[in-house]
Amino acid sequence: MAKLCPSYSLCPLIEQKNFLGVSDDGLSGCLIVTLGRNIVIRYRLSDQKQVSSWSSKDKLSAPVVYDSVNKQYIGVFNGDQVAFWQESSVLLNKLKKYKVVFSKIMFDKQIFPLVAKPTNNTLILLLM
């Protein structure tokens, strides 16, 4: 038998196609909500209040994840760039963004969601 928990309405979505995903935050009891255009919002689940948020001129293309080892957030921008930032960052416009390179060969594929493996603190980058 399944137990149903109360639902959460974390943020108003103008269009559902702008929603990229939800991931776990470094702060206990909080979640990261990534909206596709250029917005990342951290919510506290206990009272469903916004804790902080970031915005960027560049378009996010995968859900933002939190790297608990390096204590930073990781986002994928424009499908082929990865950027890292700290909680104290205000705007993501001036972040150094890295093109994805593997063995000195540029990928011609887009980066899709980053997957965090909490068991060994590993982040997996998916290319499609």
In words, what does this structure look like?
InterPro entries: NOL11, NOL11_N. This is Nucleolar protein 11 N-terminal domain-containing protein. The protein has 128 residues and is an all-beta fold. The protein has one domain: YVTN repeat-like/Quinoprotein amine dehydrogenase (Methylamine Dehydrogenase, Chain H, 7 Propeller). Helix content is 0%, strand content 46%. The chain is built from no helices and 12 strands. The strands form 4 sheets. A 4-stranded antiparallel β-sheet has the order 1-2-3-4, with no helix packed on it. Strands 5-6-7-8 form a 4-stranded antiparallel β-sheet, with no helix packed on it. β2 and β3 form a beta hairpin. The radius of gyration is 15 Å and the shape is globular. About 5% of the residues have low confidence.
Major sheet strand order: 1-2-3-4
Strand content: over 45%
CATH level 3 topology? Methylamine Dehydrogenase, Chain H
Uncertain stretches: 103-108
Fraction of helical residues: under 10%
Summing up helix and strand content along with how strands pair, one would put the structural category as mainly beta
Radius of gyration over alpha carbons? 15 Å
Overall morphology: globular
Protein name: Nucleolar protein 11 N-terminal domain-containing protein
Domain Nucleolar protein 11 N-terminal: 1-100
InterPro entries: NOL11, NOL11_N
